[in-house]
Structures are given as C-alpha cells and as structure tokens.
Amino acid sequence: MVFARKLAPQYDLLLVARRREPLEALASELRTAHGAVVAVLIADLTDAVQLCNVADRLAAERHLELLVNNAGFGNRGAFWETDLAVIEKMHRLHVMAVVRLTHTALRVLVAQNRGAVVNVASVAAFAHRARNAGYGATKSWLAALTEGVYLDLKRTGSAVRVQALCPGYTYSEFHDLLGEDRRRLAPASLWSTAEEVVDASLKALKKGTLFVVPGWRYRILVALFTKFPRWLRLRLEASGS
Ligand SMILES: NC(=O)c1ccc[n+]([C@@H]2O[C@H](COP(=O)([O-])OP(=O)(O)OC[C@H]3O[C@@H](n4cnc5c(N)ncnc54)[C@H](OP(=O)(O)O)[C@@H]3O)[C@@H](O)[C@H]2O)c1
After folding, report:
1. Within a 10 A sphere around the Cβ of 74, how many other Cβ atoms?
2. How remote is the CA of residue 231 from the centroid of ligand 1, in Å?
3. 80-103 per-position pLDDT tens digit
4. CB of 98 sitting under 6 A from ligand 1
5. DSSP letters of 147-185?
6. pLDDT tens, position by position, 19-54
C-alpha cells in the first residue's frame, strides 16, 4: 500500500492482491488525490491460473516502468511441524510468482531498455533462523535471483535496474497475521515504518543499488552477521541467543 501511495503522484498503477475492499479503497483514494489511473486486479498469486492472468496483464502493458514483487507472508515453527500446505503456498508466492512476474516484466523492460523490478526480500535472506526455515530459504532465494538478474543486466549493458529490498522488522499486518506481540520480538528501535522502508527503496532505485537494507542499525547487524564464521552463527542461533 505504501509503495502505491508513494508512486501514485508520478505513475499510473496496477494493484494486485486477494482482498477487494482494501484494494478498491486505496485505488479510489489515489485517483482522488493524484488523478492517477489506478487499476485493480484481484488475484491470489499462489493460484496458477490467477498468476497467469496477472502475468498476461503485465505483458500487455505498453509503458511498464516498475514491478514491485511485494506480496508475502511469514510463518513460525519447526519445518516438519509446519503444515506442508502452508510451506508450499509460501514457496508458490515468494518463489514461483516472482519467477513468472519478473520474467514477464523483464521481457518488456529489457526491450524498452528502461524501468526496474523491486523484489521485497528481508534481512532473513542474510540471517537464517530457527523456526523460520521456509521463510529464510525463500528470502535468500529472492536475493540470489535478484543478484543473478542484476549480473545478466550489467553484462548485456541494459539500463534496467533490479533491487533486492531487505527490510528488518516493519510495522504492517505481517506480524498481526502471525499473532505476534511486537514488543516481545524486538525493541522499538529495531522497528521501521513501511514509509521508511519504501523511501529507502525508491531512493536507492535512482542509484541502481542492488541490495537495500533500510535503517543503519540493520545495515550494521547484516554487516556483522555476514562476517561471523558460519560455525559461530550456527552456534548462536541453535542456542537461542
Ligand atoms: N513486516 C515485516 O516485518 C517484514 C520484514 C521483512 C520483509 N517483509 C516482507 O515485506 C513484504 C510485504 O509484507 P508486509 O510486511 O507489508 O505484510 P502485509 O501487511 O501482510 O502485506 C502483505 C501483502 O501481500 C498481499 N498478499 C499476501 N498473500 C497474497 C497472495 N497469495 N496473492 C496476492 N497477494 C497476496 C496482501 O494482500 P491480500 O491479503 O489482500 O492478498 C498484502 O497486500 C513481504 O514479502 C514480507 O515478507 C516484511
């Protein structure tokens, strides 16, 4: 929603999600505030047919500028104790939907040698944690895919940009859906607003930065964590530190 609000003054938008009511309300708010053309497409991106419809719509866009692969959800629990259907759904959303939509968008963007794709990953891409195996794995995959595509674009001299946006804890519905108490997860200083995250993303997009970790605290944490020897990272996480 925040990406849409920040982009609406400059761009026409196609909003995609499952719930019609909040999406229509947002579209109407943005049309009134900015006079933008805002289309709404109700789709569950984990459903192959609905995903195909979204991809077809994207492929037909004459002036595609930006794709934001933002849809995602979390879950908690030991891998084998988590409902397999939930794990598979997460992989369809974080992996297969991103494959399809990024591939479709890049065909358009590379041909016009302009535009960008933002893949919303997470700091979990760098810091795999217990009780979060599927989530961490899909977010690492997102970061790896984005890096690979970045290299392809650079090699071919394309002006198209890609970004792996890697936020830490962010105020949204994400943790409400998990039934988690934010105060128990992390101190307030480690929580960002969605505005801060989106501002960091859009600012970095102008410079073509590949990995964007919003917030200096998270940048330090990621820098430290990725320099720890693997045995130390594993020991710390396994002990619950
Ligand atoms: N919040 C955090 O702390 C945090 C931290 C790091 C990364 N992230 C990542 O940030 C991204 C956005 O999450 P958020 O924090 O903004 O959570 P959120 O408030 O729960 O938003 C998730 C969005 O994804 C849509 N969505 C979920 N499942 C979908 C599906 N099957 N098909 C189509 N749309 C679907 C939801 O709309 P509908 O329910 O209407 O479909 C909603 O618009 C996610 O990729 C998440 O992994 C979040």
Report:
1. 16
2. 32
3. 999 999 999 999 999 999 999 999
4. no
5. HHHHHHHHHTT---EEEEE---SBSSSHHHHTT--HHHH
6. 999 999 999 999 999 999 999 999 999 999 999 999
Q: How close is the Cα of 130 to the center of ligand 1, in Å?
A: 21
- Sequence-distant (6+) residues with CB within 8 A of 133 are 78, 79
pTM beyond cutoff 0.90:
yes
Instruction: Please give the Cα distance from 45 to 56 (Å, whole number).
Output: 13
* Structure tokens, 66: 């930006």
Residues 178 and 75: beta-carbon distance below 8 Å: yes
The residue contributing the CA closest to ligand 1 atom 17 is 174
Burial (CB < 10 A; 0-12, 13-18, 19+), residue 51, is buried
The pair of structure tokens assigned to 61 is 């866009």
Q: Could you identify the atom of ligand 1 that is nearest to the CA of residue 45?
A: 32
The pair of three-digit structure tokens given for residue 140, joined into one six-digit string? 């690492």
44 Cα nearest atom in ligand 1:
32
The Å distance, Cα 71 to ligand 1 centre, comes to 4
